[in-house]
Amino acid sequence: EPVNASSTCPTTQCVTGSSICIAGVSTLLCGVGLQCCMECDNTFTDSWFRSHRDNFCVGIGGSCQQESNYCAGSYEAGMCGGPAPRKCCTPRGTFSVPLPHFVVQTILLVVIILTNTLVIMVTILDKELHTIPNIGITSLAVADLLLAVAWFVIQLLVFTHSTTITNIDKNWRHVQDLAFVFEMSVILHILLITLDRYTAILHPLAHYKVFKTDTFSTWKIVAICVSVWTAAAFLAYTRRFSKEWTYCYMSVVMNMMRTILPLMVTTVLNIIIFLTIRNKTPPRVTMAAVEDPNIDQSNNHKTFVRNMKAFKTISLILISIMLSYVPLSLITMVSVCGAMPGLYERMSNYIVLLKFLNSITNPTIYMLTTRQFKQSVKTYLGQDRLSLQPADRNTDPDRQEARAKKISLTASTSC
User: Fold this and answer.
1) How far apart are CA 252 and CA 336, in angstroms?
2) What's the angle, vertex CA 76, arms to CA 260 and CA 256, rounded to 5?
3) Is 338 left (phi over 0), alpha (psi -120 to 50) or beta?
4) What is the per-residue pLDDT across 242-257, written as a single tens digit (0 to 9) for each?
5) pLDDT digits (tens, 9 = 90+) for 270-327
6) Residue 15: beta bridge partners?
7) CA nearest 400: which of 408, 389, 411?
8) What φ, ψ does residue 36 adopt, rounded to 5°?
9) Spatial distance between the Cα atoms of 311 and 271, rounded to a whole number of angstroms
10) Is the pLDDT reported for residue 184 higher than 90?
11) How far is Cα 247 from Cα 226, in angstroms, rounded to an integer?
């Protein structure tokens, strides 16, 4: 059957099937083993895009091309300059996870589950821990736990298939989106906890009017948590439409807004809190002294110590978060701006390790620096132990009488 001349590709546009057509592949017919390249017009400047907007794609070992060309891996949108059909062809093997890294990440995941679950359960069970900072840190533990699980799922898939998760199935990108949401929630949680301490110490009357006591109602907890997670979801999903993977200035702006700026604000607030605690009488004690002139002034020291412990806990967690997330933002900006090609891929596994370590460090700092939490853990762990022990020796009447005499003589219960 004769071939229609209108469906035949000009000979000058026919190339081998493995060649990359800059303007894309046409549906016009060529000979066997050949494909027809679309003709480039004066408005298409592929070389300019390759030099200015393809840095991140090239840096991870990909190639920006029209999606009508054959790709041995899969196409990733949003990483290349130019028209929408021009996407990043990421080959198989990109972002692979070596066995030693995967083993370490698996061990860290187990520790993350144990530590964060312990923080969540003990805080829920012990009403003495139902304070605003403790509930905030517990919500942070939930974010750390979910973040670790999401990233482990991603790393497991990459380790199994030796390619990016979108090369396996494009729907897996939603798991990656969730991981970004959990990352943002970690940063926003520490900012929220610091804002609460800042208000309580510098503006105690306003803080007291809102929360009345150190505990607050369920609806306020739900409202605050929903607000934090909604903000985290919005900021995380801006990666989809901000063009930050192709424009250098957008990468700088978005990484500054999502990571560096919130952490800088949190740092400044913590410095102000520290200076206020150190230089002034604790505001809550001052308010109490006005209402009751006979108040025991020793409470001043107790409040000072309590505020300093809270400041220490929040500051240590903040430092841990900064060490984990600031390097990631800097590496992303450098990669998109083209300063160090390939840096993002080479550092990707170490970045995940930093996130895992941060998810362990946060609850560990809280457990080690919060006295009430340590007492609660001893109480709940000791209940089972006590239930298996014989009757208390002090139930013996003779021993009780001897102990009572000792207390009356020494005014102390110490042995």
Assistant:
1) 9
2) 10
3) left
4) 888 888 889 899 999 9
5) 999 999 888 865 444 455 555 555 555 556 667 777 778 888 888 999 999 999 899 8
6) 35
7) 408
8) -100, 120
9) 9
10) yes
11) 32
Q: Copy the structure tokens of residue 317.
A: 């967690």
Question: Rounded to an integer, what distance in angstroms lies between the CA atom of residue 199 and that of residue 208?
Answer: 9
Amino acid at position 119, single letter: V
Element (H, E) at 15: strand 14-16
- Beta carbons of 38 and 24 less than 8 angstroms apart: yes
Task: Give the containing element (helix H, strand E) for 98.
Answer: none
Would you tell me how many other CB atoms lie within 10 Å of the CB of residue 21?
20
8 Å CB contact between 337 and 52: no
Residue holding tokens 């560096």? 260
- Residue burial 224-238, b: 16+ Cβ < 10 Å; e: rest: bbeebbeebbebbeb
Q: What are phi and psi of 30, to 5 degrees?
A: -125, -170
Check residue 402 and give its pLDDT: 44
174: its two tokens: 């939603």
- Say which DSSP state 89 is in: E
Q: Percent of the chain, pLDDT > 90?
A: 23
DSSP for 24-83 reads: -B-SSB-STTEEEBPPP-TT--HHHHHHHT-HHHHHTT-EEEETTS--SSEEETTSS-SS
3-class state of residue 19 by DSSP: coil
Residue matched to tokens 């949003």: 78
Q: Which of 82, 77, 73, 72 is nearest to 24 (CA)?
A: 82
The answer to whether the beta carbons of residues 82 and 49 sit under 8 Å apart is yes
Q: Is the dihedral of CA 249, 252, 254, 256 positive or negative?
A: negative
Of the pLDDT bands very low, low, confident and very high (cuts 50, 70, 90), residue 114 is very high
Closest by CA to 184, choosing from 357, 321, 56, is 321
Backbone angles phi, psi at 311, to 5 degrees: -60, -45
Burial class (CB in 10 A: 0-12, 13-18, 19+), 411: exposed
Alpha carbons 311 and 364: distance in angstroms, whole number: 16
Q: Which of the residue ranges 61-75, 146-160, 350-364 would you say has the lowest mean pLDDT?
A: 61-75
Quickly count helices (H) and strands (E) in the chain. Answer: 15, 5
Q: How far, rounded to the nearest angstrom, does the alpha carbon of residue 60 sit from its chain's CA centroid? A: 22
- One-letter amino acid at 70 equals Y
Query: What SS3 state is found at 87?
Result: strand
Q: Which tokens sit at 354?
A: 């930093």
Contact (Cβ atoms closer than 8 angstroms) between residue 356 and residue 112: yes
